[in-house]
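Entry type: protein chain
Record version: 2
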Amino acid sequence: MPWLGLGVWKVTEGEEVVKSVRSALEIGYRSIDTAAVYGNEEGVGRAIRESGVPRDRLFVTTKVWNADQGYDSTLAAYDQSLNKLGMDYVDLYLIHWPVKGKYKDTWRALEKLYKDGRVRAIGVSNFHVHHLEDLLPKAEIKPMVDQVEYHPRLAQLPLLKFCKEQGIQMEAWSPLMQGKELLSHELITELAGKYGKTAAQIILRWDLQHGVVTIPKSVTPSRIQENAQIFDFELSAEDMQRIDGLNEDRRVGPDPDNFNF
């Protein structure tokens, strides 16, 4: 699984998502993250086919939506996603949100898909520690990934610690806090100047050095390219701690414990 991918949440189906994904693939991205509820799986699949990049060199993620959770309905939803993507498999299939009373049956369906060789990896999204603690005793296969909101204002320290102890890879959505405030924060701009990088690159590098996979979303080719230039420098331990100090346990997205499923 690549450390950096392109997220396509809120990227419109059709030409916008096709151009965004094709730009990323041309720049060198090899990981694309979509979901059934994003409504753009067809465009993602089209962009990948038109790119000419061999399918086996790509890492494609999609997710089962809340309304489709449950054993049989999840299996059907996976088939529908594959059909829209125009693929024989995806590399990572996630439960999008922990729908109470359903996510265990949904997980059994993901385990079947994995055992049958129809998906290369399975995981969850937006699961708190208590959701994972509830799921793990019943799981035959441990979730391989937990994709959650993660940025310097929401450092998710207990979850990150738990995932590392359990061998679950944490992945960040909204790593730039949807562009709100962090990119202009005094500390981030100071560090951008110090390292000769942009504010976004400083934040994305912070993700990587915490061992968190990151999937920033953009439809602008220059920004997609900029976001990829995070492997040629390293933040000092002191600067990592300074960024850690920005944590306020503050979300820009829904809280999984109070989400209107």
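Comment: The chain has a mean pLDDT of 96.
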